[in-house]
What does this fold into?
Amino acid sequence: ANGSIAYGATQRTILSSQTISSVNGNVDISSSGIANKNIAQNISTSGSISKNVRSIASSFSLNAYYGITTGSQVRQGIKTDIQNNSYNISPNVRTLIAKKIELNYYLSFSQSTLTASNYKTIYHNQSQNLNLAYNPTEKLVFYASMNYVRNEIVQNNYINMQFLDAGAKYKYKKFEVELM
It folds into this structure.
């Protein structure tokens, strides 16, 4: 098990500014910088634990992160103090399901909450990976993997993506060939 705590403060002389306007149904977003002395602060903590279980040829791990960031920005011409709270939890399981066949499952879930005086937004993101590898020899690997991603692009509106991959990899000394 391990963990860390970090703190940082950044002083800037330019503050980001964003203006959103709508003309004839078209949304226009313009960003610029305004001369303004400001300080952004961040404090975060992260940790991980893992356990190997030889009797079932498996390893389990859990990674976690939590962070708070404070600062200022200009929206629609008004300077606003903002705070962002975010966290991420990522478990992973790797197991040898049969001789020379390995299965790996990884999940990541995160949430980011942005709060200002006049608004609050919460975004969720999730990804899952499932990998299967068969190593009949030291030099040859057959593999298949699936990746599923779900990202919240605007509040309560998600985009889902799936990726599938399969192939074979052969290694000979410093030479490697992969067929996908």
Remarks:
- DSSP finds no helices and nine strands in the chain.
- The chain has a mean pLDDT of 91.
